[in-house]
Design goal:
By secondary structure, the chain is α/β, with parallel strands linked by helices. The chain is built from twelve helices and 13 strands. It is globular, with a radius of gyration of 21 Å. The model has no long low-confidence stretch (mean pLDDT about 100). The structure holds pyridoxal-5'-phosphate. The site of pyridoxal-5'-phosphate has 15 residues, from helix 3 and helix 4.
Length: about 375
């Protein structure tokens, strides 16, 4: 039995009767740019995030780039982030004129280590960009204390974590609730995926929301009047309509991912060569990815592939070791926990529509490999 890493066709079949009429309505209206679906989606995603404002944009990358641009960074200004993330996190820092400062991760959750963040703060630090990797939140309460004490902003990279939450002092706090601005990606493979590129920022800072709305429209609230130079980065109305139709399913899809994760966890327990994902204290994980740490990773991946089972390595090269950041001077071994993770991680199929026989196929293949 084949088990793909991701099967978007299954989800399409399940939702097409809801999504296609919504798409058709946009097409009939011909309001492709900033049509009503955009503001409706912005309101819903803001509400889900316990934030006052949603500001749609063209991608998750731009949802980080725009708030970083709003910092008006000067040469030498620094932004602290994790090297163990998708490239866009650090690419956006660079493209906004900042210098990425990479600090190591917590080896259990793969999220940024707040103690390492604190140690890396300098007078040039302007912001911290924690990434809620694989769908569980970073330790926001510790990061917030550091940010408040040092007068720097937090921009949450929640590209993989829409709907994730964390219990802090007994209160559920959503991804997107606590940072200054949060960026979401609706890349098709995400828990809430568009049918193309799309992204959104959320914030509870009224003035910042206003600024971001301008920055996504070439820096002007009024057509042909530009207070500053921004981007052309709007959330396409067609994509907003797709996302609005899919949003009511998000909680159920993430719950199914959690159930699959629990099943993998049970069935893989006891294999000494495999470490199943750790859920940080207080976190409710949305399992955008289900990522193991394993021995003989590349051989296991080849074994799974031979059996028709998809898997992926997120991420094989930590960003501090990417050629484009060589000038930043991070030697091999400088962030050892991230480098070790890059050698050991393997993500398994975790999409909501996975069937019981498919889950068992994956588990059996892994157990067979380590027998
Ligand atoms: C952690 C992280 N940050 C940023 C992004 C960028 O999002 P997008 O691909 O929508 O530009 C992604 C996803 O692709 C991501 O996983």
């Amino acid at each position: 039995m084949n088990v793909p890493l991701l099967d978007l066709v299954g989800q399409y079949r399940a939702v097409k009767d809801e999504v296609l009429p919504a798409l058709q309505a946009v097409i009939e209206s011909q309001q492709f740019i900033m049509g009503p679906a955009v503001a409706q989606l912005e309101a819903k995603v803001a509400e889900l995030s316990h934030a006052r404002h949603g500001v749609g944009c063209a991608s998750g990358t731009d949802a980080l780039l725009l708030p970083l641009k709003a910092l008006n960074m000067k040469p030498g200004d620094e932004v602290i982030t994790s090297p163990f993330t998708f490239f866009a996190t650090a690419g956006a820092i660079h493209n906004a004129g900042g210098r990425p400062v990479f600090v190591d991760i917590d080896p259990a959750t793969f999220n940024i280590d707040p103690a390492a963040v604190e140690a890396a703060i300098t007078p040039r630090t302007r912001a911290i960009v924690p990434v809620h990797l694989y769908g569980q939140m970073a330790e926001m309460e510790r990061l917030l204390l550091i940010a408040q004490r040092r007068g720097v902003k937090i921009i949450e990279d929640a590209a993989q974590a829409i709907g994730a939450r964390r219990s802090i002092d007994g209160v559920w706090r959503m991804a997107g609730e606590l940072g200054w601005v949060t960026g979401y990606s609706f890349f098709p493979s995400k828990n809430l995926g568009a049918w193309g590129d799309a992204g959104m920022m959320v914030t509870s800072d009224d003035a910042t929301a206003e600024r971001l709305r301008k920055l996504r429209l070439h820096g002007g609230a009024k057509q042909y009047h530009h207070e500053e130079v921004g981007l052309n980065s709007r959330l396409d109305t067609i994509q907003a309509a797709v996302l609005l139709a899919k949003l009511p399913h998000l909680a159920d899809w993430s719950a199914r991912r959690r159930a699959h994760a629990a099943y993998y966890g049970e069935r893989l327990a006891g294999l000494s060569a495999v470490r199943v994902p750790a859920i940080g204290a207080g976190n409710e994980h949305i399992f955008h990815q289900y990522t193991l740490r394993v021995e003989r990773r590349d051989a296991l991946q080849a074994h799974l592939k031979a059996k028709g089972i998809g898997s992926a390595i997120y991420y094989p090269i930590p960003l501090h070791r990417q050629p484009c950041f060589a000038h930043l001077g991070y030697a091999a071994g400088s962030l050892p926990r991230s480098e070790q993770a890059a050698l050991e991680v393997l993500s398994l199929p975790i999409f909501p529509e996975l069937t019981q026989p498919q889950l068992d196929t994956v588990v059996d293949a892994i157990r067979e490999f380590y027998r």
